[in-house]
Amino acid sequence: MTNYFNEMYDAGKVREPYARLEGWTKDMPAELRQMKQAEAEALFRRIGITFAVYGEGGDPDRLIPFDMFPRVFTQLEWRRLERGIKQRARALNAFLLDVYGRGEIVRAGKIPAKLVYQNEAFERAVTGFTPPRGIYSHIVGIDLVRTGPDDFYVLEDNCRTPSGVSYMLENREIMMRMFPQIFRENRIEPVDGYADALRRTLASVAPAKCDREPTIAILTPGHFNSAYYEHSFLADLMGVELVEGADLFVEGGFVWMRTTEGPKKLDVIYRRIDDAFLDPLCFRPDSMLGVPGLMDVYRSGGVSICSAPGAGVADDKAVYTFVPEMVRFYLGEEPILQNVPTWQCAKADECKYVLENLGDLVVKEVHGSGGYGMLVGPKSTKEQIETFRAKITEDPDNYIAQPTLALSTTPTFVEEGIAPRHVDLRPYCLVGEKIELVPGGLTRVALTEGSLVVNSSQGGGVKDTWVLAE
Amino acid sequence: MILTVNHVTTYQYDAPMRSAVQSLRLFPSRFDGQRIIRWDVSVEGGIRGGSFKDGAGDKIEAWSVRGPVAEVTITATGQVETTDLAGVLRGHREHVPPLSYLCETPATWVDDALETLANEAILGAEDDLERAHRLARAVSSAIAYKPGVTHAHTTAAEALALGEGVCQDHAHALIAAARTVGLPARYVSGYLFARDDGEPHEAAHAWAEVHVPTIGWIGFDPANECCPDERYIRLGSGADARDAAPIKGIALGLGEESLDVAVALEATQQ
To answer: Which of A52, A84, A235, A365 could cross-link with A337 by S-S, CB 3.0 to 4.6 Å?
Structure first.
């Protein structure tokens, strides 16, 4: 039986961050709790925050379950995490600037050329072009898990368009509305500065040609997208337009937004669509979501695109292995956050180890996301394991494997009362003129007892994440 | 050799379109084998957009045309002095890592026949340069030049199976064959001054470049069984024909498009 680190109780004693929460739950009668849970659900439903799950059918507007028991960090714990996250965000951006420029890290032999230049996410179209301030990934979502009081591991980096930040904001909003008392009893760092910080970040990377207050818009694939709610929510909070490809056109070296008062020049696009769909002239010719000619405007310095096209080469699961090396190479520092040990099935000896130990490992597709195409060895049937064995043997390059981590647990409201459930954490680091991190993030919780898969697409829930002020 | 080019492309629409956008890779490359004496690109009734050099060293210029538009005419005209460098792309400034061309595209997808062709061709070759020459020769003999049997979307594998094709098919086949033996290769679009007999000849042309580490990029024209010399003008490159197209455009609207291309090349005696 694995020993999991419980973030609230250590050897029967309440840990410091949760000191004031013990009484809160003890005094809460079951009826009140059920009432509050129903109220929370009604609030989420009313504001319309739902999450459509790809390929699972059922109710496309189903809610992500919200757990009212907050996840808490002390100021001291957070500061260390913050330093580690910012360090990683800087290194990932330095890597992108380098591989689309001189490629020093490849020349130095620190990362195999093939892994970078033959990577599907490497965009030849943007080599030699330097985006404003040399920044490629303006919103870096770093998925972290914890295995002990001071042991945090990075599961993966998200350099393109990490989603979920609207849950961080809404979870807090709803908790404050339902339990104003505990926000008076606990001094909790606010997260509501995120929208302003995001706006500042985007404005700070406007093209050099922009000589006024930059006009910013969020480019969405439309309301069929599972994260559409978040796109419109962030546009509202920042006070910027939410646009689709058809709302934009290019002319005279700039991107223009159709408005009721005539065309308006756009300086910064926070895109929530994939590279492949941005511009049918440059990428997928059949894309109806993008803007024809957008990449020419971008590459001639007429508009900024966040994240920069090509940023995905930094968050590839095979490149991930080399992020600690990036921290050392570009920053001359030791990485503060650890990587999870990773076996590359592309390497014959490592693949052999993986195939011999499938029952103990987590196997992921190199380009997969959202918990799809994943094997959790200890939680899988013989049949599932054999299916993966065949897949890995067929196409080893497409898989990596990691040990099954003993994810920490936090108390969670369940049918029978309160029970420990496994959690992860995704903070959102903003990279522009400054590197900023609001104190908090999205805590995802695996609601099923014993489950280690926290993805919302696989039945995970979310929690409010607190950082206590000093 | 001094070559004078007049290249006119006309898109016609049977119903007026709302707007049109173009990305033009229509400028002769700057390298030791080419000196641009004069060159001008224009789009009738169009608005010039941004222009820049991409990572592969190609100059790209964007244009847009406001609707309603029933016809778009793109003209590239000028004079270029060329020198025979035996295909070597010497003095060309670019940033793209050659390895990135080892990625497959739909047009250069490798099937068993292409793999066999490539592996047999390089048997016993001493170095990469010889391998590249042998691959070009193998493609020349496997695909006979014959217009009209293939189309814009024919893949390398399909052309090889047919055993016939045009310069685009030869270039795709060479790229696919080179890649399968680990040599980065790319598609080049440009012009070829075929014959000076006063008769008009099809002058828009395409070939491939193969990267040989000790030398750099080298052009091979399997359609004419040679390396590009002073009769060739190089415009730009890409992973395949679509990527390297001198004109990429899109017109929004319901009209059907028809295309007319006229390229006139003349040689001026020095």
So the answer is: A84
